[in-house]
Amino acid sequence: MTEDQVQQRKNLFMGGIAALGGVGLFIVLFSVFGVEPSGLTGAVTTGLLIAAAGCFGSAARIKRDARRDS
Questions:
Q1: Phi and psi at residue 31, to the nearest 5°
Q2: pLDDT tens across 10-32, in order?
Q3: What's the pLDDT score for residue 69?
């Protein structure tokens, strides 16, 4: 893997971790403020989970493509 690919993979992985942390933060905030589950809270958490999956998937694709090109 080139240095650029390593850096890009690291950034995507950290973005996925941040998105998962955001899910945890929103769940804690929703419970602290007593927000009832609704379409809005579901949309926020679903969006963050999709973003995390996208970041992790892209990071895995970079690694797979680098292995294939070697």
A1: -75, -35
A2: 999 999 999 999 999 999 999 99
A3: 85
Indicate the number of domains in the chain: 1
Residues sharing a CB contact under 8 Å with residue 19, sequence separation 6 or more, in sequence order: 48, 49, 51, 52, 55
State yes or no: pLDDT of 62 exceeds 90: yes
Helical H segments across 1-70, by residue range: 3-32, 39-69
- In this predicted structure, what is the pLDDT of residue 1? 85
Structural domain of residue 64, as residue ranges? Answer: 3-69
Question: Quick check: 62 and 9 in contact, CB under 8 A?
Answer: yes
Of the candidates 53, 47, 42, 44, which has an alpha carbon nearest to the alpha carbon of residue 16?
53
